[in-house]
Every structure is written in C-alpha cells, then in structure tokens.
Amino acid sequence: DQQVKQNSPSLSVQEGRISILNCDYTNSMFDYFLWYKKYPAEGPTFLISISSIKDKNEDGRFTVFLNKSAKHLSLHIVPSQPGDSAVYFCARGDNDMRFGAGTRLTVKP
Amino acid sequence: KAGVTQTPRYLIKTRGQQVTLSCSPISGHRSVSWYQQTPGQGLQFLFEYFSETQRNKGNFPGRFSGRQFSNSRSEMNVSTLELGDSALYLCASSLDLAGATQYFGPGTRLTVL
After folding, report:
1. At B85, is the pLDDT very low, low, confident or very high (cuts 50, 70, 90)?
2. How far is B17 from chain A (nearest CA, A)?
3. What torsion, rounded to 10 degrees, do the Cα atoms A24, A27, A29, A33 define?
4. How far apart are CA B96 and CA B73, in angstroms?
C-alpha cells in the first residue's frame, strides 16, 4: 500500500535555482510528515518536518509546504547547491513509518 | 507489483536472546538495505546487500549481521539482544546498488524487554 507517493524519480536543476520536490499521500490521519536526504551507502538523514496543523515550515534554504485539501506536500530548496545532490524521501511520521520511493535531485554547477 | 514485505511486523524478545528478521524485496530488485529507526537516533544505516554480497556496512556492532539469498530475499540477525536494540527495523529494496530509487517496507517493530 503506497500511502506516500513521490511520482518523480529524478529532478535536475541549475545551481542557484529553486528545487521543488513533491510528495502525495492518501491517508488524512497522518500527524506529521518528514523529509529525509540520502547519500549513497548512508542512511537517510532528517532534513525538515511539518505538523499537520501547519501549512508551512521553513529552515534556512529548505521550506516544506503542506496542502491538506490536496493531500500534497512539497520541499523547496532555494538556492540549490551542488551539495544538495542526493535522493530525497518524504515520509509520514508515525510509529509505523511510511516512506515515498524517493526523488534523485541533481544540482548542476 | 507487490511492495517490499517484512516479517514479522512485531516482535517481543528478552535481553540475551537473538532474533531474525526477514525482508522480501520487490520482484526484480537485487539490492536490499537495512535501517534502524529509533526516536532518538533517527534512521541509521545498517548494511546493504547486492547479489548475495554485503556491499556496504554502517557503524553497528558485530551482533548485527545479515545475508541475502539467491532470490534476493534478505535476513537480518541480531544476537545477544540489548534493551537499546528496541527499534523499528526497515528494509528497502532497489534495482541496483544504493543511489537508485529505494522502496521501503513497513518495518518490523522489535521490543526488547
């Protein structure tokens, strides 16, 4: 059951531009969502989260937007840097976590 | 296609015991990675298997081991369980080595008493 979906397997952007990573979910009962960043051979590292009572959370260059009516969240990275190149996972926060399949972001110098 | 499956979903053990967790990847996927999820430590990488060989290993003691079978199914074993091993253990599969899109299973929640 794919309760959290990331429909774009890859995204390529130019350094300095905005990266927008998208995620859709199916269950409205989720309390909060998280974004993880992952480099090869490492575990995903926590990036930013958002509670379902909010529609936006910002941390430096990273902003997550939550659209509850559309069951959609997005991660914005501005400005994008080459070091941001990684796979990004969205996940629902729960005792029983569910992850999206991930989106590979490539930031070109 | 069926997703990644993990068995059992829940497990309760006592200190000193050992446990084996199982992961069946998506059909056609050859890479299986294992992660430990705890509230305090977040998601930590345990190891990755590809074509029956361990290709990468995280920073965990030797009590944590794994293997992969010819059908790509993987098992993870933890011996001499400690209270701190209580966690959600996640398995993820991908077509190729880490770096490719990974699909996570629902996890096995292990409680050590």
Report:
1. very high
2. 24
3. -30
4. 14
